[in-house]
Every structure is written in C-alpha cells, then in structure tokens.
From TrEMBL:
The keyword Phosphoprotein does not apply. FMN binds at Q64, K133, H162, G218, R219. Its EC number is 1.3.1.-. It holds the Pfam family Dus. Catalyzes the synthesis of 5,6-dihydrouridine (D), a modified base found in the D-loop of most tRNAs, via the reduction of the C5-C6 double bond in target uridines. Residues 5-289 form the DUS-like FMN-binding domain. This is tRNA-dihydrouridine synthase.
Amino acid sequence: MKYSLAPMEGITGYTYRRAFESCFGPMDQYYTPFLSPNSARSFMKREQKEVEPAHNADLPVVPQLLTRNAEDFLWASERLAEYGYKEVNLNLGCPSGTVAAKGKGSGFLSFPEELDLFLEKVFRESPLPVSIKTRIGRNADEEFPRLLAIYRKYPISLLIVHPRIQKDFYKVPPRREPFRLAMQDSPFPVCYNGDIFCREDYEELMSEFPDLDMVMLGRGILVNPGLLRELRGGAPAAKAELREFHERLLDGYVEEFRGDRNLLYRMKELWTYFRYSFEEPERCRRLVRKAGNLAEYRAAVNEIFHMETVRPTGGFSFGK
Ligand SMILES: Cc1cc2nc3c(=O)[nH]c(=O)nc-3n(C[C@H](O)[C@H](O)[C@H](O)COP(=O)(O)O)c2cc1C
C-alpha cells in the first residue's frame, strides 16, 4: 500500500511536511495545497515559497494547481518541471463557494465539454505527467460516469477520487459505489481519499476494495500524525512523540513566519484537528484559543501536554 498526504490549504505547507516526515515519515507522496496560476505569469510569494526546491529537498512532493485555463496550467507546469518536480496535480475537488462559482475546482465539473478541451490541451503539451484529484460531481453523484469517461480519454498518471459532491464539503459519508466505478477496469492507477481516521476505517475500505493500492490521508493525519504508522501495523503515537512533532512544527513556523500573528493562526488552525488526539478536546480548544502571542501559546501547550491524556485511537469519527 502506498500512502499520500492530502493537500490541505493553510495547514500542510512545506513546514508541516518537513516536521511530519522527520517524526512520522516516510510518507510515499505529499501534495502541496493548491497554487493558482494566472495570467500574471508568476507565482504569488506564498506559492513560490511552497514550491521552492530547497524547501522540498528529498521529499516526494507533487505540486497541485487550481485553474480552468489550460495556458495558465501549462505555464506553471513548465516552471515546475524546471524546478525538478516529476508530476503536477490538477485540483477538480475544491468545494469552496467562491472557487466553484468561478468554475474552478469542483466547479469545473459542471462544464464537462470545457473540461475535456482543457485536458486535451494539457495532456498534449504538459512537460510533466499530470494526476487529477476529483470529486464525483458538482451537484449529483450521477455526473460521475460522464466525468470518468472524459478522464479515461487521457493518460492520467493517477486519479485520486474523493467520492463526494461539491455541496457535501467534508461532511456526509463518502460514497463507495462511484469509487467502485472508478476502480473498475481503470486504465490508470486510482487512489482513494476520504474519512480514513483509524485502522478500522482503513480495514473496512480494504475489505471492499482489496485491489486498492493507494490511499490519500487528510484530516486523519492532522488529528493523529501517528496514523500512518498505525496503518502500517505500528504502535500508536505516544504523548512524547506528539509533543516532539508539535515542537518541530512550531520551530519550523518560527523560522517561516516573521512575527507571531501568522504563526499563531497556523497553529490554532492545526489545533482544530489536533485537539481530538486528546481526551478533552474542548479544554484544548479553550486553552489554545486564548493565546495572544507566542509565549502565551507555549504556556497553553505546556499545560495541555502536562494535563491531557492521549486518546486511544480507534473510536474516532471526526467529520462523520
Ligand atoms: C483545511 C482543508 C484544506 C484543504 N485544502 C485542499 C487543497 O488545497 N487542495 C485539495 O485538493 N484539497 C484540499 N482539501 C481537501 C483534502 O485534500 C481532502 O480531500 C479532504 O480533507 C478529505 O480527505 P480526509 O477525509 O482524509 O480529510 C482541504 C481540506 C481541508 C480540511
């Protein structure tokens, strides 16, 4: 089985990836949160930092692009090839209302003919192999067979399926039947993504899809960075390991960001998930929320790691 870390905007940037890999790796593949190439023909500062080769040295990283414009995609694909990346990923899943309203991410799924033309140009001209991360439709599951027929016209390096539609966001259970359709006689490798939070979730998935050989993990890792090791048959993360991971991540953000504001924003965002690693997530939330600067944040985290007990894994069902 191969495992990848899902792209998660605002969380799984290069600092997170490096902290994760050093504590709980190796992850087989990492995807960057989406970059939005546009006609300006330059990456934004944040995006440039994200794909800077030095920031991703020795990690298997695939940059992800969010656009409906083939020229913009190809421009970015060329830059990324120059940086030494081996693959680029297309985002056809972002459920955000503003993104979808512009016909990008899951919004692009509403325009199958335009999507087909886009893919035709991209697959003809991209210097890098292209993988796709897709939802099963914009408005209804029934859109998926048509989308799949379009995908199957192209030599996609990997199709990652998050079997929900746009309006599901990250709630309601992912659908198994459309995923089965994607697996059936697929001309390219297929990866499953959605709601794998513990070993039981994984085993249930594998019992339905014994031929599956790639799974993308998202919030399950944010909650419990030891999940990858557990899925590989290893021991759950001990509190000391979670602490070590947290410290490396925090040190990384101190280096990445000037000033406390961005850093606190990032760490608080992480705790919206990470708190479920502890017996009393609500208390963790309150403690972390109050911190107004780095010193207060460190004190809050000290308290959490002293007072809190790590939850046994297995019964967790975040988002379901
Ligand atoms: C905070 C957050 C940010 C996300 N950002 C992205 C993104 O940049 N690109 C993308 O394709 N998916 C993004 N996603 C979706 C995840 O990659 C993944 O498909 C989703 O969380 C379902 O997988 P999970 O149940 O394992 O978390 C994001 C999800 C979350 C929760």
